[in-house]
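Throughout this chapter, every protein is written as a compact record of paired, labelled lines. An example of such a record is reproduced below:
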Amino acid sequence: MSAAPHDEVLAAQEAHLKGLADSEERTIFDKIVSKEIPATVIYEDSLALAFRDINPQAKTHFLVIPKIRAGLTRLSKSTEDHKALLGHLMYTAALVAKQEKLDAGYRVVVNDGVEGCQSVYHLHLHVLGGQQLSWPPGC
């Protein structure tokens, strides 16, 4: 576990200032899906991809993303059309958590917008576990 929470705040603020929230620019996650950037993929199907976080904040920390962004940059930007995909992402998180043997529990986090510490504007679920997590979670 490495990056300090402060680093995530700065990354989110930088992404916000660059206008990435409303950008059609390809994200690092788009490049992972297209295999332009390597990732440790632990699950893939036609709709979703799960891979290990490069900056883990728990013993087990992976991300679940839609393979096609389709305007789903933030949870708050989701529409009725995204309902099935959102459900599939949650199902995928649970499936991979089971595969990762997180039987004692885990946390699913969606960062939304600058104040939610979102730095990559391609909707993604963080799944953290493998240890006792504390409450309240901070950024």
